[in-house]
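Putative oxidoreductase: structure, please.
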Amino acid sequence: MTCYDRRDLGLLLLRLGTGGALAAHGAQKLFGWFGGGGIEGTGQFMETIGYAPGRASATAAGLAEAGGGALLALGLATPAAGAAAAGAMAGAAAVHAPNGFFNQEGGYEHAALLGLTAAGLAVAGPGSLSLDRVLGHSADRDWMVVAAFAATAAATAVVVGARSRRLRKAREGEQEALFE
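Here you go.
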């Protein structure tokens, strides 16, 4: 029997906790589980916070959270899983940022914590207690970390940037309406 070290057990616990929380949030968006809105309800909400089209935004966020979270928990394709989850959490943090840091005020604390933990796991790797190890790290190569984060950063910048422009135009339209 193999004895695993504390690092492997710690990474397993981080993966299970972070991945489980992310997967549950994604399931809320995709399926309406755990009190979530499902694609329709989440899509309508996404429109109100500037992510459009809402249904596509809900699907993308739900897949990044549920898929990235499940893969993180399993320790499978860890660089891509962590990067996808971190990107989704960056989008969530952008929504909550105007409310400050702390969660009780509606801030970005929770999204930042999940995103940073997912990113840290993508960089550190899944540890020995993972499917990546069982599969010979075929989907967990060093170059994949850089590629996954580059792709995620580009996609996140485009999506969050489009949201920011949409919200700015809406505010400008409201201000013009006040002076008419």
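Notes: The CA atoms of residues 152 and 158 lie 10 Å apart.
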